[in-house]
Amino acid sequence: MQDESSSPLLCDVLASASAGIISRCFTHPLDTAKARMQAPGNVMFKGPIDAIVKTFQHQGLRGLYGGFGAVIIGGTPGTVLYLTGYSYSRDKMTALVTGGEGRRQAAQQLTPGQEFAVHLSCGMLAEAVTCVIYVPVDVIKERLQVQQSATSVEGSHYTGSFHALKQIVRTEGLKGIYKGYWATLASFGPFSAIYFMMYEQFKSAARERKGCQDGDLPLINLVTSSCCAGALASWLTSPLDMAKLLLQVQRGQDAVPCYKVASRTQPQYKGMAHCLSLVYQHGGIRGLFRGAGARVLHFTPATTITMCCYEKCKKIYSDLLI
User: Model-level pTM?
Assistant: First the structure.
């Protein structure tokens, strides 16, 4: 059987693009529910299912899939860079640490501590690079997700992804598009690091039990590994994700919201630490983990579908193209 490291870059690119699109089609409504529950002044939703039902009742599918265009057009290249970047850096770092030739041979020489460090650092590195694409997409997506058409302030309502991009650039400049960049990196960096570290550990344990190679691991083991890693990583980093969202949806110096809130004024967050501090002051630990359930419900299937599709599509494309 051919070593995975010899698969052409094209297989990785096609597999990651396919995985990102398929995953987002199924899980975007859950992401919208998570965003609306974490938005400042949220008093409407009792939980993620309630958020989905009420959003659908008031705005239909268009409300549930707010920001979908930005994610598909801008997020797909981000997913490609993210997964191929992780795979490439993991293989190179593994070979560098062990001096091995192929990925499998080198990986077998890693100590548990080295394996842990490689997967953790490569997950963080992949996220740091990809945030250059992800942050503008995330800003547009989340502003579209949290707005409610019936209660939008005049002049603040976005009609679509491209309109949101033009409005943000016109009113806030490039800084508005990259609002919350460091917060995003501080949120998704730890998520990616924890996720990939745990995912690789779960897969390794499954391979040992099954006595098979990575490419031959049954689908059920891929699903279980990704579910467990995604659920724990998303829950642990939920407060960081909330701070990121709050920084991204506030509008320039006046922080004028484009969705219904309990009061007309919202605090102007100066950074992630300040944001977390204010949220804790007003809501305690429960406030910090507001929307954590929706985040887990979104990221667990999203990461599972993405990684399973990526692993299987890579094998399919490799068989077709090689």
Answer: 0.74
